[in-house]
Amino acid sequence: MKGKVNKTTRGSFATTFGIIAAAAGSAIGLGNIWKFPYEAGQNGGGAFLLIYLVILIAIGIPIMMAEFIVGRSSHKNPVGALKEASRSATGGIVGIMGVIAAFLILAFYSTVAGWTMHYVYLSVKNVFAGLSPEEINLVFKQFIAGGYAPLFWQAVFMIITVGIVLLGVEKGIERYTKFLMPLLFLFLLILCVRSVTLPNSIQGLKFLFVPNFTAINTQVILNALGQVFFSLSLGMGTMITYSSYFSDKENLTKTAIQVSVLDTIVALLAGIAIFPAVFAMGLNPAEGTGLVFGVLPQVFNALPGGQIFAVLFFFLLVIAALTSSISLLEVITAYSCEELNITRKASTLWGGLLSLAVGVFVTLSFVPIEGLSSGNAIFFDFLDNLTSNIMLPLGGLLIVIIVGWIMDPKIIENQLRVENPETNIFYKTYRLIIRYLAPIAIFMIFLSSIGFFK
Ligand code: TRP
User: Fold this and answer.
1) Which residues line ligand 1 (CB under 6 A)?
2) What is the pLDDT of residues 180-217, one digit of tens each?
3) How many CB atoms lie within 10 A of CB 440?
4) Which of 104, 105, 390 for a ligand 1 pocket mutation test, highest count of atoms within 8 Å of Cβ?
5) How far is CA 402 from CA 17, 276, 283, 388, in A?
6) DSSP letters along 227-249, please?
7) 69 and 261 in contact (C-beta within 8 Å)?
């Protein structure tokens, strides 16, 4: 009964464009422009990219399709949807793990989004003009170690996120993404052009695109796996939640491929914008979480009218972060209001607040405090690792097992619009992937990362 009521009272996306914009809006965010370059920089550049692309195609896209199948066939929040797909209450546990992951990701996502907001402000004040690379790096280090400013921006970001989710799904999401994301794309292109025309840029391009196979080890593979899940918003119910609002007309395979291709292009553009500049300025590609914030202001300095570009670019990055953070909060909201029977408003409010409460400690983990903390971001790294490299792939593993082994194949065939399952090669390959290849690969990557094959 409850499901029936939900189906009619829940909103749904009006247009195909709205669907892609919202799903891509969730996928494209700090994961592409902040996390991808810093992970690639720390994990061997080209080798990381190669493994990333292999995992994206072999595991990422199939899992996105699996989440779409679960979401649209049930039109429910992840917990309800997975209970239905697995035909038992235990399936809901996967959904609950996803809700917890959403809390934790939002906690550190808001930290980095707050940094981005601060960079809009710094660019408006034209702080970076004329600074040397070292000085620009120092601005970042002093800012995150200061504590108050990062906490302030984090809170502002969270309040905006909560505000948008309170407005409701389509209105909150579609309106903003439609024209701002293409603009971000354009800006990235301009940055790329500037970056590759810097002296020595070829070194940066080589770093990103020529794989050094000796750099590959189990940790690099695990990080690439985690990055695929993080960047595509997989493994915790975001895509289940969004697809629960899809109309039955949508082609799920096509949507999954379009979203993934867009997401990958944005990550690549970010890489092309950053690594040539890193090498041109003699910086360290393995700098870590601060990489983008240390490098981009220098690229802007090398652009005519750079200040205006910087202001607009960081602003657009904040918007990209918002379309991702609302998708995270939406998972918490949909769960709490549909499964716990708390009003939508209250669900959104407590979801945002609780996550902010955890997030405060993430932000403070960058602050050295006498006798308490080294300021080495141990809590930040812990949450980043726990969610990207463990919780999301584990969630993805359980989702493909549910879809591949437990869910009624009729529903899958129906959702993918397969008419002759016996002879359809595409469908047979897909089943092979979700039943065998994806789960075994994820499992092996887990095992090897804990040293099982040594
Ligand atoms: N994919 C987003 C990014 O790249 C972040 C994000 C949003 C996310 N929703 C998610 C990550 C769900 C994992 C799971 O910035």
Assistant:
1) 26-27, 29-32, 105, 230-231, 233, 236, 238, 324, 327-328, 392
2) 888 889 999 999 998 999 888 899 999 999 999 998 98
3) 11
4) 105
5) 29, 43, 46, 21
6) HHHHHTT-SSSHHHHHHTT--TT
7) no
